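Feature request disguised as a bug: please show the residue count (425) next to Preprotein translocase subunit SecY in the output. Example input:
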Amino acid sequence: MAQIREGKFAPLRIKLLWTALFFVCFMIGRYIPIPLLHGTSTGTSTAGTGLLNAANVATGGNFFTPSFFSLGLGPWMGAAILWRFLFIGRIARGRRIPEATQDRARYVLMVILAIIQAISLMSTYKIHDLDFGPLDGTLNAQIVTVVILSAGAIVVAWLAKRNEELGLGGITMFILYQIVITAMRNFEALPDLTATARYEGVLGVVVLACVLVVLIGIFLGNAELRLHVNKVSIDSGFTGVSYLPIKLNPAGASPIMYGLALIAIPQYVVHAVGAVIPAASAGASGFLSVWGLSNPVGFTAYLLLLFGLTIFFGLFTVDPRETAKRMKNSGEYFDHVPPGDATRNHIRWRVVVLAGLSGLFLVVLTGLPLYFIGTYPNLQFLLTAPQTLMILLGLLWMLYEEIADTTLGTRYSFSLTGRAGRVTA
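Example output, currently without the count:
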């Protein structure tokens, strides 16, 4: 008897054990302090603090308690999206650059972002001198701190990558952990926050947005548009069941997570420049005072980025160019649509429309409540609740689908008997 139990259909318990191992490593790293940093975070504006709070939830980091894993997945997520935003990935594919070389280039970009974020974080804390080596004691301490924080970001990215290969959820588990921790830290203050929000008249907006996010996330989480596909290799009696599925929300919660990771990068860069170049500190402070979710400039930039990323992830998920190419090579076509460029445009237009509607949904229900952060900064936990719920539902849905795929292989077994011509399944 031969049973399929390997590869993609590995037993769920094995994946859970791997995930538990990586998760324990992640938790341990979050509680390893940076010995050279002490005191509380200083030098960050109110606008910047609000943005960092939101980015921490979306990337699994923690800028307000310095530790080995304080940078979280921010550098990795920023590098992943910048790689495609800058069209480096498309250039690499056009020049047929090996995948291994592309991976190394992405890691270099991630390390650069990690160093920038490490400098930004370090500059907000007091630092002990390290009287070791030929350099100045303060400079020695700064170099060691940046190296430790950057190394922590690399380890977190490695853990997420290994969890994606061997465990469940990939980066999902680390972000879920940060969401739970943030909720627990604010649970005691929740009654007071709710009372204040009710008094200020914003509680109804938050509750309505949360309810709509949950309802739409649950009932439309797996809804899809099915485009009828004709296949020349299939008998005409079965052509009615052939289709190309496109989810109504093809991007899921990814635009929120990656949007917060990206919108925080300018803050990290400017803050780091101000720390390294004292002459630029005044200009850096001016930029940081307006670049945040509580300021119209940062708020508008985030909403535009959120909408743009929704369309970007929709096109990335479906990939009209590759889909049209595959359909042409396999003899598939849509009704009244010629193969090739016409098919690609046909798919792209529908993806853009669906992703645009999804983007409007994200902007209205998860983005607009952030408008009140500038007026009520103490209510940030409640005002960011809709987007946190959207991230939570999106990650749980992804985890559910991965578990379903993993257990699918355990439902079937194949056996070969000794009798000629008899095979049972």
